Amino acid sequence: MNHNELGTFLRTRREAVTPAEVGLPTGLRRRTPGLRRAELATLAGISVEYLTRLEQGRDRNPSPKVLAAIGDALHLSTPDRLLLHRLVKEHGADKELCQTVVAPPVRTVRPTLRALLDRLEPTPAVLLNWTGDIVACTQGYERYAGPLGLLDGDPPNLVRYLFTDARARAVFPGWDRLADEQVAHLRHETSLHEPHVIALAEELTAAVGAPFSDRLAAVPVTPSRTGTDLVDHPEAGRLRLSYETLAFPDEGRRLVVHIPADEATATALDRLNGRRPGALRAVSG
User: Fold this and answer.
1) Which residue, 34, 88, 104, 140, could crosslink 122 as a Cys pair with Cβ 3.0–4.6 Å?
2) What 3-state DSSP class applies to 73?
3) What residues are paired with 243 via a beta bridge?
4) What's the pTM?
5) What is the pLDDT of residues 263-284, one digit of tens each?
């Protein structure tokens, strides 16, 4: 794992912002992509020396005021600001706390949440915890995911499936993007020092090596909450599934609902569910 994630995050975000985006002259000779340290320090109202210490990992406890100033200077989105604060916390007392006093991921389902899943039938919808375990799902998801091998395992785990099951790369033409997204969720929704995350990371690093470990060590990014995936389903054929994510941060869970992105996919899923075409409707855009 990258032991200076805070510094890496700051440096890469600084290098991704052009001078023009923050109202600075571009200049003719710039060896540094994006902003220079001195430019970001001036914009944030801090010293170059302090910014250097942050980026080099020699100071890992900036104040909320400093974080806000850096976020403003870099034009960070709200999710990226939250991620920045999380990275700071992970280097402090939270590391020891996560390693000693953390409850295991909860796999029970509240009655109201179970009722919500029932109302979503026959839509493929799945409830995941912070390590990617499948906690609950609709019957529509079972009929969709079962033939893919996604429900194998005790408990079934989406991250483990993607990286260790040979079927995953054949099923998902966009495997690389999907793998990036799931590792981003793993990093964003809890601390990398959390014992259950450590155990999963060690397992997958030993099992597959670089395809997982390189993603885990990369610059942290905010996972997408919506998008569209292509799926080569062994029974239903090529599917285009859009998804929306509903987060339950207090419980360390997220509900992912898959919506047919075209009429052919809607018809294929209806057949997979043993229903007349029309039970599911395509939603584009």
Assistant:
1) 140
2) helix
3) 227, 258
4) 0.70
5) 999 999 999 988 777 767 778 7
